[in-house]
Amino acid sequence: MTEPVDWRVYRGYGEPHDGFARLPEAPPWRRFNGELPAVEPLRPEIEPALPPGLAERARSYRPGAKIVEAANAAMLLRRPLLVTGRPGTGKSSLALSIAYELQLGPVLHWPVTSRSQLQEALYRYDAIGRLQETNLYRSGETDPVAPIGRYLRLGPLGTALLPRERPRVLLIDELDKSDVDLPNDLLNVFEEGQFEIPELARLVDAASVEVGTADPGVTAVVENGVVRCNEFPIVVITNNSEREFPPAFLRRCLRITVEPPDSETLTEIVRAQLGTPATERAAEVIARFKTLSQHSVLAIDQLLNAVYLATTIDVDDPQVQGRLLDDIFAPLTWNQPD
Fold first, then answer.
1. What does DSSP assign to residue 216?
2. Measured distance CA(113)–CA(181) in Å, rounded
3. Is residue 316 packed enough to be buried (19+ CB in 10 Å), middle (13-18) or exposed (0-12)?
4. Are residues 141 and 96 in the same domain?
5. How much is the average pLDDT of 65-90?
6. Which of 230, 258, 286 is where one domain is finished?
7. pLDDT at position 335
8. What is the Cα–Cα distance from 183 to 82, expressed in whole angstroms?
9. Last residue of a domain, one of 258, 283, 306
10. Other Cβ atoms within 10 Å of 32 Cβ, number
11. Does residue 182 share a domain with residue 269?
């Protein structure tokens, strides 16, 4: 009798592996036909890793079983994962953890604000810069104008949709801060896995245009003005529960709510980040954090700061140490429940 195969390609253990190769084929309705380039924009042999600080954050992240299951289900179904929870519960760290463990390169990050628009995430075109150079060329002051691709750069979502054998991880951070129309604007991109760049689509003399990407120094070729993915990117969308999203948007996502970690998980997070000796000396700090977080909004970063302080310096006066911890454990919101 053969052993059952673990269906989870992402484990959440903080150890890089090649489990992504075991991911089953996408459902028929989530298969895309983006043509893979002869040389991918980021090749595995030169693909940069996460920066050291982010890599350490990804390595020490410890998601609960429900989060791991939801992340794997979203990858299997090729759907965005909408992660809801209080600030500081590690929602953004999930994207880093997936990219680090499955070796998918740096996370593409789109931090959303009230002024964010879909096009800035797809691409930016410097029409003014091109017009200025055109005018200078006509006046004889410069060399011929550079190709149009020189003035066009894909944003994080546009870069994530480039055709690749393995998807990139895209973090859409704090979507609930967006304008009310932005979630609806994302629907077609999420459904079709592609978008058009009108400035390139209307060209009659250039079917292939080399453009910049969200990866510094990396370019990609856009064919016929359309960016179409081959594998839908792994999209993690964070939400601080500040407002509701429309049903049409929600049905295109898998949803998970991140609950505050229990004492055992907190201890494991501290151990992964600061080591066993520091963890053994920090039991009281962890207990204090857990008690305070039941009534106030606190972040895991605050706990790690407090443990590092408590285990790095010797404070003879307990009152001084207490005041320092009070400063570190200051609530993240002004209005707290009774």
1. T
2. 13
3. exposed
4. yes
5. 92
6. 258
7. 47
8. 12
9. 258
10. 16
11. no
As given in the structure block, the two tokens for residue 31 are 């298969």
Range of the domain at 36: 19-258
Residue linked to tokens 């790690």: 304
Residue 304's nearest CA partner among 275, 333, 337 is 275
Report yes or no on 334 lying in a domain: no
Domain match, 197 and 320 both: no
Structurally, the chain folds into a number of domains equal to: 2
Distance in angstroms (rounded) separating the CA atoms of residues 44 and 60: 24
As a whole number of angstroms, the distance between CA 206 and CA 201 comes to 9
Encode pLDDT of 143-188 as tens digits.
555 678 788 999 999 999 999 989 999 999 999 999 999 999 999 9
Q: What is the DSSP string of 9-70?
A: S---SS----GGGGPPPPPGGG---PPPPSS-SS-TTT-----HHHHHHHHH----HHHHHH
pTM: 0.84
Q: Give yes or no: residues 59 and 169 share one domain.
A: yes
pLDDT 10s digits, 8-64: 899 998 889 888 888 999 999 999 988 887 656 554 444 456 677 778 888 888 888
In a domain, 13, yes or no: no
